[in-house]
Amino acid sequence: MAAAAATLLLRAAGRALLSRAAPLPRAERGISDCGGARWAPARPGLPVPLSSPLAGLSRPIRIKEPPKRKPVDRWTKKRALFGVYDNVGILGGFQIHPKNLIMGPTWLRGWRGNELQRCIRKKQMVGDRMFVEDYHKLSKRIRYLYKRFNRTGKHR
């Protein structure tokens, strides 16, 4: 009987304390200076950032800064040679494709790809005209790259 009365008295005291306590700050969506919306307690009267200890938060909020701008090299090979063959169509009456002006191996003209794709393309295009030893080395390289590409990397 005495224990029940003590718990009732304790509950009443707890309710009285809770009713007098200031309400907790509500979490609202605010816009910060770093470009993104953050969920944080709304404190309309404080002109301090949310990361400041004066904001009254129980633990610090980690606010990310925007990424730094990367310096761009305007004279890379790709940018420097952009549009270099445009005059071929204009001056040549559009009768020759710029791909045909590229000098180099036939299996590489006007084509892009990784090393495995390049080796497979070479084997398909000129494999019947290769020396036996070179053909064997190319086949070994294709087998190795095939295993490697299937085991690692983003191509899986």
What does this structure look like?
This protein has 156 residues and is mainly alpha-helical. It has five helices and two strands, in the order αββαααα. The chain has helices at residues 2-20, 77-80, 86-91, 115-126, 132-151, and strands spanning 27-31, 37-41. The chain has a two-stranded antiparallel sheet with strand order 1-2. It is elongated, with a radius of gyration of 35 Å. The N and C termini lie far apart (71 Å). The mean pLDDT is 75.
Summarize this entry quickly.
The chain has 156 residues and is mainly α. Helices cover 39% and strands 6% of the residues.
Helix content: 25-40%
Strand order of the largest sheet: 1-2
Termini separation? 71 Å
The ordered H/E elements are HEEHHHH
What is the CA-atom radius of gyration, in angstroms?
35 Å
Query: Mean pLDDT, nearest integer?
Result: 75
Poorly predicted regions: none
Q: Strand-residue fraction?
A: 5-15%
Q: Please give the number of β-strands.
A: 2
Structural class: mainly alpha
**Biggest β-sheet description:** 2 strands, antiparallel
Anisotropy-based shape = elongated
Number of helices: 5
